[in-house]
Write a structure and sequence with these properties.
Layout (H helix, E strand, L loop, with lengths): L13 H7 L12 E9 L2 H18 L10 E6 L2 E7 L4 E8 L16 H5 L4 E12 L8 H7 L6 E5 L4 E5 L9 E7 L4 H21 L2 H27 L6 H43 L10 H8 L1 H87 L6 H32 L1
Parallel strand pairs: 5-8
Antiparallel strand pairs: 1-4, 1-5, 2-3, 3-4, 6-7, 7-8
Helix pairs in contact: 5-7, 6-7, 6-9, 7-9, 9-10
Length: 434
């Protein structure tokens, strides 16, 4: 695109982001119409094969296949129209046959799709539904009893929708053909309204099922949650006892419990968050229907609130309980670690006290040794003086009283040795303090 004005160049994602709001617009339908909706869950490998699968169908009818990076596609192929969308956890295929007037569910949109292509459809079916939009004045649906017969006698759920432009009915059951059913009685629906209405009904069906994927996990995890909670109570009760408890063993047990709980949380956290997100989408789509009650018939919103909300609340409760249990384990772990730290500090204090006592004893012994060493050195020096005096008497003719000199030298030597030892001791202490 050429800019007519000297403005900065376009961001690399400008047009892609701008066009995203138009990417999955509902199909405008020519009424009456029949439709079939399929939602499949796929592995990573199957998701990569979807493009080639769609391309095979396009080649069969001689039209251009979607681009490799496309996540949605719609086209008219022969006598039917297809709409494909790839989502994070599932892909949906919607088939429409327009401007066809038949008794509801006697003719199905899937009958127009090549069966050999359908046989190769990758993934596992999570939702399959037929829908039919007919005129409200159609004699085959003129009474509540006739509408109920189309749902094999099951209780019918429905309401006026799209501001009274139509009436939508279903029973939220899977019938003997493996499909659920939606019936829309058209009063004043426009083609765009009809496409949006069908899309909302199908999305309510698929999102409610995807939301319920977390419910079996919540039921399965409930006994594990109760067991973990009981183990935590046992550990905390043991912590409350004042004696006879091995804190290290309790800490090991608490750490093991924390690891198990965190593993459960990390394993199922995404599924519970997804359930909450899908349920919000269900509520939003029901709100978009703008339901008005039909006397004697339960609305779709009431049905979901009564039947789906308790299961979702169970999932939320399980997720919250695991989060609270993890927090309680963490708190107990901190308390236990604090108690272990205090015990270690007490042991260290006792050890330091013992070392201080030994140091004092060693100092006393050292002082005793020093005193004895002064006496020993004095004795040795005095003996040397005595020997020197004797040598003088022998080698010279000077008469020196050896006993007198030795005796007089004792106090002098003692004082000098004591002073020297004390000075050396003081010097060592000064060096150590520096």
């Amino acid at each position: 695109m050429t800019n007519l004005f000297p403005i900065p160049e376009d961001h690399s994602l400008r047009f892609k982001l701008h066009n995203e709001v138009h990417a999955r617009a509902p199909i405008a339908l020519k009424l009456p119409v029949i439709s079939t909706f399929l939602a499949v869950t796929l592995t990573g490998k199957e998701k990569k094969l979807e493009q080639s699968f769609i391309a095979k169908l396009c080649n069969k009818y001689g039209i251009a296949s979607p681009k490799k990076e496309a996540s949605h596609f719609s086209a008219t192929l022969g006598g039917f129209q297809i709409r494909w969308e790839q989502h994070a956890e599932f892909s949906s295929y919607n088939f429409y046959v327009q401007n066809i007037s038949e008794v509801p569910f006697s003719k199905l949109a899937l009958e127009y799709v090549p069966p050999d292509w359908l046989e190769q459809l990758p993934g596992k079916i999570i939702v399959a539904a037929h829908a039919s939009i007919i005129e409200e004045k159609n004699p085959s649906v003129s009474t509540t009893e006739l509408i109920s017969e189309l749902f094999t006698g099951n209780p019918v759920i429905g309401a006026e929708a799209s501001g009274g432009a139509a009436k939508a009915f279903t029973d939220f059951n899977i019938h003997s053909d493996g499909f659920s059913r939606f019936l829309v009685l058209n009063s004043t629906l426009k083609s765009g309204q009809a496409g949006r209405l069908l899309q909302r009904l199908f999305e309510i069906e698929v999102y409610r099922v995807m939301a319920l994927l977390a419910f079996p996990i919540a039921k399965q995890m409930s006994p594990e949650l109760n067991k973990a909670d009981k183990r935590l109570r046992t550990i905390t009760a043991a912590m409350a006892q004042s004696s006879g408890i091995n804190d290290d063993e309790l800490l090991d047990e608490l750490t093991t419990l924390a690891a198990e709980v965190e593993n459960n949380i990390s394993t199922h956290h995404y599924r519970f968050d997804a359930a909450s997100a899908y349920y919000q989408l269900v509520e939003q789509r029901i709100e978009d229907l703008r339901e008005v009650r039909i006397q004697g018939i339960q609305t779709i919103g009431e049905f979901m609130k009564r039947r789906l909300e308790p299961a979702i609340n169970t999932c939320k409760s399980t997720s919250i309980r695991f989060a609270l249990l993890s927090k309680r384990i963490n708190n107990a772990g901190q308390l236990l670690r604090t108690r272990v730290d205090i015990t270690i500090e007490r042991q260290n204090q006792a050890l330091l006290t013992s070392m201080d006592s030994r140091a004092k004893t060693q100092l006393r012994l050292q002082e005793t040794v020093e005193s004895l060493s002064i006496v020993a050195i004095t004795s040795y020096v005095v003996s040397l003086i005595g020997s020197i005096t004797k040598a003088i008497n022998t080698s010279t003719h000077i008469d020196v009283n050896t006993s007198l000199v030795t005796g007089l030298s004792i106090p002098i030597v003692l004082i000098i040795v004591a002073f020297g030892v004390r000075r050396i001791h003081k010097k060592i202490l000064t060096d150590n303090s520096d």
